[in-house]
Amino acid sequence: MAAKISFVGAGPGAADLITIRGARLLRHADVVIFAGSLVDRKLVQLYATKADIYDSAGMTLSEVITVMMDAVGSGQSVVRLHTGDPSIYGAIQEQMEALDRLGIDFHVVPGVTSAFAAAAALKQELTLPEVSQTVIITRIEGRTPVPENEQLHAIAAIGATMVIYLSVGMVEKVVDQLLQGAYTPTTPAAVVCRASWDDEQIIQCTLSDLAEKVQQAGIDRQALIIVGDVLAARREGLKAKSLLYDAEFSHGFREGHIA
């Protein structure tokens, strides 16, 4: 088999939330480069039992690419392990473009993003009929700039379910910008810190007390903020239901009938 590079999503944290394909690639890899600041080292130790391990937390892009080039040149297989799903804030685009320029083959294995692990922790569907059919994944501007038309206060005007990454350390600014949009102080909110890890933390509140609760909990990183009316649907007993299982609704696999 030709040597190649696999970008693999490690999942949100728990060692058993990596995909079967990702775990298999780790088991057979000769070299593993993992994001040590985010990926649980125990996951790497569990699956990558025969590989040379590199922690990219202290590496530059050129150093990562050099390790890949050297491994491929020696006929070895490489797994580049990223947290969650690497397509969301994964910083893989620049790595893939560098490999393209070098003519080195690679492929990408999806993972479970922390947005969906957080929804699972909350036992919450992010899209509900007549409440919200749109999920916006975004972040507030920090050291990494955000396009002007994607500033948080601008997209908050939509009022959809919003999953906000990489922003809990600026929670007061987040709340201020959300309140400039379609949300109000009573809009339901939640924070899930280290979703699926053993030390997972969950805060459920409203926008009015979000900043205070986050600060009281001492959460300043590795957390998602989720905002939207879907978060109140169960406790407020909203009656909107999907048509998919409605007895009077026909679709390609079932004829509707009057119950």
Envelope shape: elongated
Poorly predicted regions are none
Number of helices: 9
How many DSSP E strands? Answer: 10
- What is the topology, as strand order, of the major beta sheet? 3-2-4-1-5
CATH level 1 name of the largest domain: Alpha Beta
Distance between the ends? 58 Å
CATH level-3 fold name of the largest domain: Methyltransferase, Cobalt-precorrin-4 Transmethylase, Domain 2
Q: Give the rounded overall mean pLDDT.
A: 90
Please summarize the sheet with the most strands. 5 strands, parallel
Radius of gyration: 21 Å
Helix content: 25-40%
CATH superfamily membership of the largest domain: Tetrapyrrole methylase, C-terminal domain
What is the helix/strand order? EHEHEHEHEHEHEHEEHEH
Count of the domains: 2
Give me the secondary-structure category: alpha/beta
Q: Can you tell me the CATH architecture of the largest domain?
A: 2-Layer Sandwich
Q: What share of the residues does DSSP label as strand, in percent? A: 15-25%
Can you tag this structure with a few keywords?
Methyltransferase, Cobalt-precorrin-4 Transmethylase, Domain 2; 9 helices; 259 residues; 19% strand; 10 strands; 5-stranded mixed β-sheet; Cobalt-precorrin-4 Transmethylase, domain 1
